[in-house]
Write a structure and sequence with these properties.
With 295 residues, this protein is an alpha/beta fold. It is built from twelve helices and eight strands. It has one domain: TIM Barrel (Alpha-Beta Barrel). The chain is globular and about 50 Å long. The two termini are 24 Å apart.
């Protein structure tokens, strides 16, 4: 498999695999004021970033949509997330409106431990939310909080995945790592989860959770790339990465647009693992298509 070394090579990459395109489960679209604030935080290398992190695709919303369309990204998320109380419900309303006008978008939602969280999560589910973004690092909250127990149960019952930044990279807090979220999974074994960044840097711990919980998936976001903000993936886990990928539980994620390299570099890095074309087909299309019921 030829590795796509530039964005212009991405369509040839997925065509050579016999795919109709690619599906990216880790993409950020959010209200422009919030997106600008996020970009400003990256510019300042804020405390949760910890390193210089230039944003490559600092374009208008329409330009970013056109870019993904041109690459052949047939479905993607719009992962917005709160860093304080009082944000989540309005973000969910914005995300629902965004998905209504962007057919390729998998309607996304989020939540925060606060009064009314059960009610607005139910409204988001009823409105068609297909994935919930949970950022334990930025949100700074414990996923085991009792006020969230019913929310995790609602997602488990609905079969709607939670895409959770639970790993401690790039900067840890007291609620990251496989321990706290592992307790959530123990309470709600039917929960479908996507662990962002393959759980970096606690790869072993999150892969162990995937061995116990069939609903645990992991996304590839930023792992294997030349950018050193997250930990290197251990060679000893490559056989398990291959197996989980062929099972449809390793999913393509990129963190677009908040990346400091070309979009193609994520795909180039995955192809360079030499885990086989079937593995790439599963990661880039079949796994996420099956999870989200896409044709």
């Amino acid at each position: 498999m030829a590795e796509p070394r530039s964005d212009s090579a991405v369509p040839a990459f997925w065509r050579s695999l016999g795919l109709p395109g690619i599906i990216d489960v880790h993409v950020h679209f959010m209200p422009q004021r919030l997106m600008s604030a996020v970009w400003g935080y990256f510019d300042e290398a804020g405390p949760l970033i910890g390193t210089e992190w230039p944003i490559r695709y600092r374009d208008s919303e329409q330009e970013r949509l056109d870019f993904l369309h041109g690459l052949g990204v047939r479905a993607f998320t719009s992962l917005a997330y709160p860093h304080r109380p009082g944000m989540a419900e309005s973000l969910n309303e914005w995300a629902a409106q965004f998905a209504a006008r962007v057919p390729e978008c998998l309607q996304s939602a989020t939540f925060y431990p606060e009064p009314g969280v059960e009610e607005y999560v139910r409204r988001a589910l009823d409105a068609g939310a297909r994935v919930f973004k949970v950022h334990l690092q930025v949100g700074g909250f414990d996923p085991r909080l009792k006020e969230l127990d019913a929310v995790w149960g609602m997602l488990a019952d609905a079969g709607v995945p939670a895409l959770v930044h639970a790993g401690s990279g790039p900067v840890a807090n007291g609620f990251t790592g496989p321990g706290p979220f592992g307790e959530v999974l123990a309470r709600h074994p039917g929960l479908t989860a996507i662990v962002a960044h393959l759980g970096a840097p606690e790869f072993e711990g999150f892969f162990a959770l995937a061995a116990v919980h069939e609903g645990v998936h992991l996304d590839t976001t930023m792992i294997f790339t030349r950018f050193a903000a997250l930990a290197p993936f251990p060679d000893a886990l490559l056989p398990r990465l291959r197996d989980l990928g062929l099972e449809g539980r390793i999913l393509l994620g990129t963190d677009f647009p908040n990346i400091p390299y070309e979009y193609a570099h994520q795909l180039e890095s995955l192809a360079a693992l030499d885990l086989g074309d079937d593995w790439l087909r599963s990661v880039c299309w079949r796994g996420p298509a099956h999870l989200f019921g896409l044709s």
